[in-house]
Structures are given as C-alpha cells and as structure tokens.
Amino acid sequence: MMWGGIALFSPAPVRGVAEAAAVGAPAPENPPRRPRIGLALGGGAARGWSHIGAIQVLREAGLAIDVVAGCSIGAAVGACFSAGKLDELAAFARALTKRRVMGLLDFHISGSGLIAGERLRRLLERDLAGCRIESLPVTFAAVATELGTGHEIWLTRGDVVEAVRASYALPGVFDPVKVAGRWLMDGALVNPVPVTAARALGADVVICVNLNGDARVRGTVIQAHGAEAIEPPAAVAALAPEAPRRWALLRGTGRLKASRARPADPGAPNGIASVMIDAFNITQDRISRSRLAGDPPDVTINPKLAQMGLFEFHRAEECIELGRQATQRMLPEIREIVAAAGPA
C-alpha cells in the first residue's frame, strides 16, 4: 500500500508469514542482534596517533565499530573515524615534520593559553566542516571538562570541530573553548579513557586504548628517600636521555623557555612547558588507573609508548605502527570476548 510515495505495508513479508502458517511452520524471526562494539580512545597528545593503527587493525579483522568515545587526541581521531575520514587523517599524520608541526602552533600571549588553536581549527574544518555529531554514521561522543565547576561533559550533539577542540584544550597550552554557553577544556582532567561514556552510548563490548598504560612509565611509591646523593634507578636513567629531546619542539621556540641558560644537571627540569605538560601527564596516568579500576573495559590495548614524547607529532609512522602491534597482540582475546557477548 502506498501513501504519499511511502510504502506503509510490504507485501513480501506478509506473504511469507501466510505461507508459513499454511504449512504449520513457525513464522520467520528477526535475526539475532550482534553485540555492539565500542571504542574508548584515551588522551595522550602525539601518542594518540597510535589510535589510528588500533582502528586500522580492528577494521582489517572485520570487527565493526558501532560506538566511539574519545578524550583529547582520542576525540580527534575518533571524530575522524566516525566521519569516515580516518585514512585522510593517517595520510596527514604521516606527512608531518617538525617544521610543519611548529607551523600549526599559533602562539600568543593575550589569551588564557599559549596557543590560540585557530590554525588547528582550520585544519579540522578541512574535512569536518559542517559535520554534526548526531549525524555521524558511527555513534560518537567527545569528553571535556567544564572550567570552574569541573563537570565532566559528554558532547554528543552539535558541531564536531568545536567538540573536538574543547576535548583537547589542554589547560595553559590551548585556550578553553566555549560550547553552548559552557567554557570547556581537556577531558583528560576528569576521564582520560572514557569507558563509561562508551557503555552509556550503547556498547556491549568496550575496547579501550590507553596511551598511558606502558608499565615502564607508571609511577609508584618511594617509601624512603633522603638528601643523600644516590644513583637513579636503572629504569629512570634509561629514560633520562630522552627528556631533552622529548620537549625539543616546545623549548626550541624560545617563547616557552623559562631561561635560555641550559641547566647544569642534565636531569633537571628544562622549561615551564616541559614541567607543566609532564605534571599533566602524571596526573592523567593516575586518574586513568583509578577510572579504569572502577569501570574496567572488556579489553585494554596498551601500546608501548614510553619512548614517544607527548609533542613528537612528527613520529606518526612509528606511533601508528605501535598501535597496530598492540592491537594485533590483543586480537584473539577481542574475538573471544565479542563471540561470548553474541547471541546464545
């Protein structure tokens, strides 16, 4: 039956039911629903390129992703994937050099952060302009933190670009972003790996990619420490040479230096930017562990990113490969859990 060009009744299903009833067979049933797979993509600046590798492996394995909840860089990668732009993002990331990274950072001193973020906004709009979260093919949410109240904000509708910018607005580095009357900043302050959001959006199986899960950089408790001169533990000594190079991009601008004089101690803090971001990274790691213990995902992917600096965006090729390797290691467990969550 047609009305206004819309089929109100489809003759084929009705005929099938009638034929089944005539021979005494049970009416055909709807096929069982497969489990909805959700991704929780954590924050971690340049380490977030590993999210690209993780998603690539899941796609190649034939695992359909239905829900994505992202925080900070995880929101940026998750939004591009949800909009069908992951391959474009991967090509862009691989093409980055140190010079190109610095060209994307519009430093200023008049705002509430070191970087205005307008160049990055224009870059996002190149592929995501006009996209709205509620219209994306994949269910998506970006997690942000409200300035002043500390509320955890799940951005599930509205402009994709503004949601992503709010989610990665690292305090002191990027200016906060105003969305629907609220000033928002980096979601990693409250929920660095948004497993809870992925579940709330309807995921039956949640796979999280934790960018701070490498055991080599996890903090612990030093129960006895005094003023005596001692050698640093071997693990710390091994990472120490990475520190000057890790923050080379930010220190090299000159504008972010606390002093042009190099510290006499090679292990000493080397500028306000490195101290601020390292402190944020430590806080994020502790919050991640607490949140994941309270609401554990079904599967956790921990790329080995200890040697990857937070602002080394030019090392995308390495980072993507580390994400691929970590996900490939977890594929058997992922398949097993997805199968167990399916219809009996």
Question: Summary?
Answer:
This protein has 344 residues and is of the alpha/beta class. The protein has a domain at 37-215 and 288-341: 3-Layer(aba) Sandwich (Cytosolic phospholipase A2 catalytic domain), CATH 3.40.1090. Helix content is 40%, strand content 14%.
Structure write-up:
The protein has 344 residues and is of the alpha/beta class. The protein has 13 helices and twelve strands. It has helices spanning 11-22, 50-60, 73-82, 86-94, 98-103, 118-128, 160-167, 195-200, 234-239, 242-246, 248-251, 272-294, 316-341; strands at residues 2-3, 6-7, 37-41, 67-71, 113-115, 139-146, 152-155, 172-174, 177-179, 182-186, 205-209, 299-301. Strands 3, 4, 6, 7, 9, 10, 11 and 12 form an eight-stranded mixed sheet that branches. Strands 1-2 form a two-stranded antiparallel ribbon. A two-stranded parallel ribbon has the order 5-8. It is globular, with a radius of gyration of 24 Å. The protein starts with a strand and ends with a helix.
Q: Tell me the number of strands.
A: 12
What is the CATH superfamily of the domain at 37-215 and 288-341?
Cytosolic phospholipase A2 catalytic domain
CATH class of the domain at 37-215 and 288-341: Alpha Beta
Helix and strand sequence: EEHEHEHHHEHEEHEEEHEHHHHEH
Largest sheet: 8 strands, mixed
The number of helices is 13
Residue-averaged pLDDT? 80
End-to-end gap:
37 Å
Structural class: alpha/beta
What radius of gyration results from the CA coordinates?
Answer: 24 Å
Helicity level = 25-40%
Oligomer description: single chain
And the CATH topology of the domain at 37-215 and 288-341? Answer: Cytosolic phospholipase A2 catalytic domain
Poorly predicted segments: 1-23, 235-261
What spatial form do the alpha-carbon principal axes imply?
Answer: globular
Which second-level CATH architecture of the domain at 37-215 and 288-341 applies? 3-Layer(aba) Sandwich
The fraction of residues in strands falls at: 5-15%
